[in-house]
Amino acid sequence: MYGATTLSCNYSLNLKNQLVAHCDNRGFMTVPRNLIKNIKVLDLSHNLITVIKNNTFINYTKMDILILNSNNISEVHEYGFEGLRYLRILRMENNAINISKLPTRLFRPLENLIVLEIGRNEEQWMVHESFVYPDKVFSNLKSLQNLSIDLFDRPEFGNGFKSLQTLAVLNFRKCYMRFGKLSNETFRNFSPKLRELYITRCHHFFHIDKGILRYFPELNILDLSHSYIHLYQALNILYPYQNKKMSVINFHHISDKSINNDKFPYSVIITKELMRYLSSICIEALDLSATGIVDDELYSLFSFQYPGCFKTFIISANRLPSTTLEHYMQNVLFLTRATNLKTFDMSYLPAQYLKPLFLDVYHPGKFIGSHNQEKQHIFHQSFHITINLPPLLEFVRYTHMTVSVCVCVIHMPKYIAKIF
């Protein structure tokens, strides 16, 4: 029976024994009305639907999941989701929906909705004006746990968002931040139970006030990857999480060469002051790759209060010094203390040649060596390091970097999976 086709839609049972109607990529311009009525999952993605009219889904009151991604939906009528009392997941990304024009009562029937994905829709910000999110529309979603939405310039989230008290995941799918900032008050109306926050791929620099995260005391995942906010700002907003546990802090490529001024230089020197909040957090996975770090004070970058919390640490593609004993020893000390570390990546550091030849300023046709070559030679002969890698380590990478000539004794875990 469920191998049959109705109006070009195929049916099957998923792993939960739910009836699924596969109506994706069929060229539908409207939602079909005569599907099997007890379907639990309806996939209408990648069609040509432009409007969700009133009572469109009234025949499918048992539906659990509705997928409307990648159509050309620009209009949703007030009673468009009428009858979908049991709907738990609604996906409608990659359309042309202007969320500021959604009818106030649109989501009222969706009393059991826990996941709403409505990002990657129409660009609707205007230069020098705040974008006011339709909080009354979202206030009906009192069971919502996961919200994916776009981040517009100078965002304002009104009191209606206070109704989303079970919200645990806030994911900004597309970023239009350009001239505004995220202020201390931006997230004041969101649930203090929020566990995951994703603000990614904002490719224009914007300011962030220090207190933007103070409303989320239980935050477990913070992902700012590919958002060009600069490492200085990112480290500064971590103060609410001192001596707390976090699963993931992802700061990959948050500094960029397009940001280079006296206040936010492209070349970042890590100090103990900059690390004062980050170093006090018990972190399982930390990504500081491609953040513009060129140097670090002693006892700053690798001086974490809770190194035993680490399972993953990625710091590749920076411009850290790779030839000094001091920096080696900081790294070695961290590795010996990070007893639960499984993945460590410190690759793609710039080449630092040990014995460069220079032109003689008095005789440009001649080359001269470094004055401290003899000193370097002695140093290399006496430079011995013993490294005890963490016992749980599965992946370690030290590639694409020039290091000092030294004798290294590495004690590796018995079951290490990959080492580069």
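The record above closes out task 2.4. Task 2.5 opens with a second protein, given below.
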Amino acid sequence: MRKLRNIIVIILIASALWHFYGDNFKQSGIDGVYQEMSSDLEKVKQNPTVVSVVNYVSDGIQLLIDKGQEKIGDNPQTNRVIPDKPELNLPSEQSFSVHNIEIGDLRSEVEQQVGQPKRSSLNEYGVEWVTYHENYYNFLMAAYNAEDQVVGLYTNQDLVTSKEGISLNSTRDSVRSLLNEPLEYLQRGLVRYQIQSKDEYDVFQMDNSFVTIFYDKHENSTVTAIQMISEELEKQRKDYFTEPSDGLKKGLEYQLFDLTNATRVNHGLSVLSWDELVRTTARDHSIDMAENNFFSHTNLAGQSPFDRMTEDNIDYRMAGENLAFGQPSSIFAHEGLMNSIGHRENKLQNDFEFLSVGVAFNEDSQPYYTENFLTK
């Protein structure tokens, strides 16, 4: 910025000198200009009006420079500090690891590697997803049992290593060729649930765990995320949909928010901020859908998402809404939305600044998810 300032000053000085002394230079050269400038400077020193004008111009130049610096400094893309990716090693016990963490590791060992958690929130297994990241870089979630051992892991970033060579660049076909056949159903109690993944994910049973590998249809069906749940934790879940609670509702809301931000930094986008007032609008729409058995951006009163925001006195310059229904967790809801082009575009919209999520459950414990995006 100092070089810019110097250039501006030189241009202004040169223009002023030519305006006042150009004719003299043509007639008498440098010596004539020097003598006339010396005479004029004596007059300037005693003329308060001229001094005032000079000060005004100087202040104006500084203001322009300061404004330029302010705009550059306010650019989140310019200022964003990207932390180093950890050095990843092959897993020692399991087939997969996340950030060098494996199922069965102790929480103390995990946090020695990744630091203190950013959030803990209840998940569909009745335990907490403990979230670790550096402004959503190096993002992962871990679940622990009563002995503080890892019983669940998830990431949607390039933190995965495997003995089979599977990574976030692997294709669905290569995953299926390297691993055993994916499961066709999950058994919970006396009920068998068919897995209907639409080729968006596969579930494998291996290493005393259930490993779900998610694929991105819009990136040539390459691996986009992985979830690992120990058999111990999976057996605790009796039904496909978990009994609703206020803790689970808030957990699913914050998890969907965090997952969206972790995905945005993967795509070089800014992190969205949470807006509590907008959460009320989003949650009210989820409640409306759950209680009145419909699934639509337009409610039974004919209101659009934008009508609902206006009614709640929310000011915005642009806004968008995503809806999901029938997924047992925010992870499955998020990965499904990312495979739907319109919903994906909302999550990856460069100009959005805020996101809030509202969740509600119907009488069958099925969650309805509403994401409201906006820019103020």
